[in-house]
Amino acid sequence: MIDIEDNLESGIAERVRLERTVRNWSLAELSERAGVSKAMLSAIERGEASPTAALLVRIAAAFGMTLSAMIARAELRGGRLLREEDQPRWTDPETGYVRRHLSPESDMPLELIRVELPAGATVRLPAASYAFIRQQIWLIEGRLDFTEGNVVHDMQPGDCLSLGPPSDCVFHAPGPGAAVYLVALIRV
């Protein structure tokens, strides 16, 4: 059986290189736009570094994409049915959070993403990652403290939150178990 996550890692490396190449950007230009060092970008493109969620968000935003779109373009193959075993999974090497892209590749602006954030883990995403999207978060299990700008939302299973205007956000799973949630986003 093919390891989807290993394929996704190499797909991300190829996608970053391809997106940069089609724009005719140097590593220096992407570095400046994304706020990521040239050395790190080079290591990512060579498949020698596994980028964190925060780094991937900054790189995707520099390309005018969402993190979900970057991951989807790195791995998804056509078809209206995307079986669970074919859904790209990506694990943040820093926090261990697992992101599974549920939506088949399509021209629809809707994407569904399942996230499992380990107990005690925190992921910080800049406002730039929300510039091209509107989203809702539905907590399936566990607890999630979601900070949007200066507002903290203490989410319990079954709660659904519609995000406001783009702002810096923090996802934190206070425990005792992982926070499992669905992100529904629309590209605008």
How does this model look, in words?
The chain has about 190 residues and is α+β, with helices and mostly antiparallel strands. The protein has 2 domains: about 5-75, lambda repressor-like DNA-binding domains (434 Repressor (Amino-terminal Domain)); about 80-185, Jelly Rolls (Sandwich). It has 5 helices and 10 strands. The strands form 2 sheets. A 6-stranded antiparallel beta sheet has the order 1-2-3-10-5-8. Strands 4-9-6-7 form a 4-stranded antiparallel beta sheet. A hairpin with a 2-residue loop joins strand 6 and strand 7 (about 150-155). Helix 1 (about 5-20) packs across helix 5 (about 65-75) and helix 2 (about 25-35) crosses helix 4 (about 55-60). The radius of gyration is 16 Å and the shape is globular.
Distance between the termini: 37 Å
How is the largest sheet built, in terms of strand order? 1-2-3-10-5-8
Write down the overall mean pLDDT: 87
The level of helicity is: 25-40%
Q: Treating each run of at least 4 consecutive H or I residues as one helix, how many helices?
A: 5
Total individual domains: 2
Give the ordered list of helices and strands. HHHHHEEEEEEEEEE
Secondary structure: number of strands: 10
Summarize the main sheet: 6 strands, antiparallel
CATH fourth-tier homologous superfamily of the largest domain = Jelly Rolls
CATH topology of the largest domain: Jelly Rolls
